[in-house]
Specification:
Layout lengths: L25 H39 L3 H27 L5 H6 L6 H4 L4
């Protein structure tokens, strides 16, 4: 016979023994998140590039088989993905490492309310 669930147990916090707790500074968390974000942008870039190459290859097979209309559809999609992957590649190259120290050194960005302009 199944045991009844204690509905109050879901409300109790889970405690982790002190030796197993990880303590992170804001800088360490920010740095890691920016690193992961940069890696993900690059993965998207590479995925788009590889898909574009596959579409180009498949389009060539259609062209070799005399199916020009079908081939052109694949070539067009490959060109579209090439443009998109270029954008992501540039974003990946422009991606910067951030830290609270670096942010504190930057000039503040004026908001519309501060600069006197309206939306």
């Amino acid at each position: 016979m199944p045991r009844e669930r204690d509905t109050n147990s879901r409300r109790q916090p889970v405690t982790v023994p002190l030796p197993y707790r990880a303590w992170f500074t804001a800088d360490a968390l920010l740095e890691e998140m920016m690193k992961v974000t940069g890696e993900l942008i690059w993965q998207v870039t590479r995925g788009l590039q590889e898909t574009g190459m596959l579409l180009q290859h498949m389009g060539q097979h259609f062209l070799d088989a005399g199916k020009r209309v079908d081939a052109e559809k694949f070539f067009a999609k490959a060109r579209d993905l090439s443009v998109k992957s270029s954008r992501y590649q540039q974003e990946s190259l422009d991606h910067e490492a951030l830290s609270s120290e670096k942010l504190e050194q930057e000039d503040p960005i004026d908001s519309p309310q501060e600069s006197g302009t309206a939306d």
